[in-house]
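Side project, low priority. Logging it here so it doesn't get lost.
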Amino acid sequence: MNDDIAFLPEEPCEKSAVIPGATPWKVLVVDDDPEMHHVTHLVIDGFIFAGRPVTMLSATSAAGARRLLSENLDTAVLLLDVVMETDDAGLALVPWLREELGLSALRIILRTGQPGQAPERDVILRYDINDYRAKSELTAQSLLTATITALRSYQALADLETGRRNLELAVAERTRALQASEAHSRALVEAVPEGIVTIDLYGHIRTFSPAAERIFGWRSVDILGRSINVLMADRDALTHDRHLAHYRQTRSSHVVGIPAREVIGRRRDGSLFPMDLSINQAEIGGEDLFVSTVRDTTTRRAEQEALRRAKEAAEQAARAKSEFLAMMSHEIRTPMNGILGMSQLLLDCDLDEQQRDYAETINQSGQSLLTVLNDILDFSKLEAGRMDLEAAPFSPRVLLQQVCSLMDGKAEEKGLHFNTQIPDELPAFVLGDGHRVQQVLLNLISNAIKFTSSGEICVTAHCEVLTTAEPTLQRLHFSVSDTGIGIASDVQPLLFTHFMQANSSISRRFGGTGLGLAISRKIISLMDGDIGFESEEGRGSRFWFWIDLPQSPTSRSETPPHSLAAQLFDAAPVAPRKPARPLTVLIAEDNIVNRKVISGLLQRLGHTVVAVENGLKALEALQTHTIDLVLLDLRMPLLDGLGTVRRLRQLPPPISDLPVIIITAATDPQSAEDSLLAGASLAITKPIALIDLERSIAQVVPLPLADKALPADKPATLQALQDALGEEDTLNLLDLFLGDADSLCHSIRLHAQQQDWPSAIAITRDLQATARNFGFTALDAATQEIIALLHAPSDGLQSLLMALPEILRTIRHSLRVWYPAHTFPPASS
């Protein structure tokens, strides 16, 4: 037996081991000796190997073998005699079946009775046979062993062949898939509008897509191998060369994989055009390549330019509209201030019944006209998207009480029962624009009173908790019900439309512009809430709205602003009232009527007035009079209110520390913000009512020490610092603090405007640390709240930043009380 075959024969398998449906093994015996067929048949026919039975085919000549092999190409083993019809008939059969039939897996066992005619060594070397046996040496066992070994070898080769064929099929399938994928990718590349250009590490173009051909005007065959610099303007080409050189040296690049950047491209004809360029890296065939995607942005640039011009035109129109509204507001409010102010002063005179009726009619008509003006201005702001909502703490319960207290008297005048239901479940404080919530409530309640002749008005509120995580989100529900005329079903869909009332007779009978509900809807929409109503004609209406506001842990906005010193030193706040002493008030107002009105109101409050017509004369008056309070009109000739307050803050103390109120006809928040940034203590809007003026003065005028708004003694922390360092060193530290504090506040505002939150937080922490070292508790609290808002910016941040200069002015005032012999640095603007 061949030494290369190391298999051992298996025991014959039982008939039961046949796998159902298994194909039999075919063993072909080719021999001219019938005895050999008989013996072989006895040994192997019916034998089972690997679950398949063995069946024997017989041929007595090479010619017969050719026929059987042609018909049975799946023959596994060939037991072949050498000498049959010719001396080498068996050997001649071997090349034919291997080459012509392709039976490379067929196992051939050569059996010869005349070994001398077919020597084993010669046969093995010349013919592709697998085993050589002399018939004289063959026993039944050795024949069986040789056959089993041949079957195993055939099975292994058959499995290999099957694997090869499957592999070829898989390779063919994968090749078709790759070809399809390449065709698909090629179609995509050809279809995309962006040009795709592939370059190597030295900038040589490797591929150039059809879209790139259209963009640059180059044919692919003409540009392949050339430098990509021919596709870029000179400046961008130099920059690109530097990037490639840097990548070759460091294998890193900051332009790969980033969003598209705009560069200037060059077409084949030399014309330049803007294009977006993005670069990604790819490894193809072990080589680093860069895939560039380019898009011609000429059309987009033209569209952007058109949009920019349209935007500028729209902004110019908006500015013109805003300037017109501001001018009209100023022009209307200025005489309105005279009408309302003089009527207030007139009503305080000794009038007979008819004269008082005339004065009250003038005042009421002025108030109605002011309401119409405010509605038109609010609606214009809402239409232009220029109404900004504040985010400050307010109490829903207090707000409702104030609104209902204000409207209760009007309901009583009409004989209406005014019912208010304010549940205890309302949160103590929420963060939002309390003024706008109040405006909506006043509008709904005013309408209810206006359109109800008998019965009652009912105002209710409740809340529901939407989230329990801090800060808790509360949904506040408000409802205003009446027993009035109701609303006809055909006009209900139009009720929130601007300038809309139920019908023209309503306008004639009850008055109004029809803007109130439209404004209310837009305000609630700005707050991401909802507003609606239910009504039946002749039976009344119920208007409702809800808004979602976060619960606020602080009540800072509920503390009267005039008690700033009390906040600073933990003193109890005081209610708005007249100052404990008469003040000398400087008024700068160019309109003579307004000067008379404000002077008359101030004199009613017991104050002395120094009145001038512009800011320059106000600065002169400060040098010749002892002034306690300054009131400045925003718009004045020669020197306006903002310029005046800036110059005032540059003067030496105590003038630089005087409280300043800016009076403006503008209703936009920007005017108030500009006033506070310039150094004003407060900004109020014309027309000015007596109670509003009284409260405004109470907000900004420091109370005397006798009222304990300021402490008689220094804070314990400051005193401890002085005990440790001595008074001189403590004063030096205070001078350093006051010298830097204003610039620090300015830097905080600047970084916040630029949204540089880390820098703003760092500076605020420095200011807070200094405040704690000296025991300035309000500055400490304010900076703590500012830091929290800098971490999560909201609309309340700006108002807090505006409060810092006033806190510093209060600190300066207190320090001069404690250290009267020392001259502290003045405030810087």
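Brief comment: The CA atoms of residues 246 and 252 lie 7 Å apart.
Revisit when time allows.
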